[in-house]
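REQUEST ID: PR-0412
SUBMITTED BY: lab tech R.K.
PRIORITY: routine
TASK: structure prediction, single protein chain
INPUT:
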Amino acid sequence: MAKGRESKPHIGIFGRRNNGKSSFINALAQQDIAIVSGVPGTTTDPVRKSMEIFGIGPAILVDTAGIDDSGELGAKRVARSLKALKTVDLAILLIAGNVFGEEEEKIIEAFRQQEVPFLVIHNKSDEAPLDDALKQQIETTYAVDVLPFCALRPDNLDVVIHSLEKTMPETAYRANSLLGDLVDKDDLVVLVTPIDNEAPEGRLILPQVQAIRDIIDNDAVSVVVRETGLEKLMESLQPRPRMVITDSQMFKKVDALVPHDIPLTGFSIMLARHKGDFRRYLEGTPKIDELIDGNRILLLESCTHQVECDDIGRFKIPKWMEEYTGKKLEFDVVAGLNEILRPIDDYSLVIQCGGCMITPRQLVGRLKPAADAGVAVTNYGMAIAWLHGTYQRAIAPFVNPKAK
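STATUS: complete
OUTPUT:
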């Protein structure tokens, strides 16, 4: 499944084969976007569908294989469906015929382990009305909404959507400002955007675009400059910048050019504070100094891209880390939300990119195994700042914010 390429809230649909998951998606979208068949097992792998949900906005529906799939192949399909839990902000358990047994109990336990909020929909209620005793049992045991529904005649679709809106974590669809607590109206923010081999042709990278939009949304002013023009700009720029944000690899150079009374940080650190576990990053970054020969480091990229000879994750960070520590280290890189093949406790440190292409829920879920295992985690920008001796300055705008 192509995962992690949308920053919209993700809603996973789970249930037994032939419970009408695809029909439910079509009813929710009010259009035929999922293949419907009476043959059990029509959906074999998680499939993503984009749609607009009133009250939530643009969302991604994740249609999964049946949780009761059987046989060796069926077990693999169920495993893939369970993996989808790491990417969803909310889960819907679809039941039918008043059947609620071991499979449903197992998937609910998986919801709880992944800390995914959920609700239960009894589909095909035209064929078998939802039993009041079962409804009360589920609601009492799991403290969730249980709603009757008929995908063929969705008369109470508004009730279902209201329950979705109520259950969906607000953080999944209502983004907080990246810089709103740091800049005021008419403040000037300088963005340093190097153009190198990794820069996309004819456009800026997503974190830079997100920063520009957020600055504008806060009625402030952004000035974008390459690192080669920063020194001349700083000599003549008026008014004085409220803060400077730079690409992580330029920390050392920009640090030397920007007066120390002007806050300086990086795009990746900005995103780490915005959607990552910033407190855990702050705790994990100093662990770089504790690395020893033979330690293994995991670098997690949230997207896939063409690899260049100076790729930040595959080449630059490993090179800088070995130069800084003087140790011989082992590095693995996992792109997108692909499976991490080694046990997480094989690693001494996990370094996560800014995560501009994924949701906060996906990013937190991505790092949960490391957190559960007590493995130190940090962020690309924070690690780079540490290695280049600019760490305290780079985190200061978010750790010790001055009054605006």
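NOTES: The longest strand covers residues 47-53.
REVIEWED BY: pending
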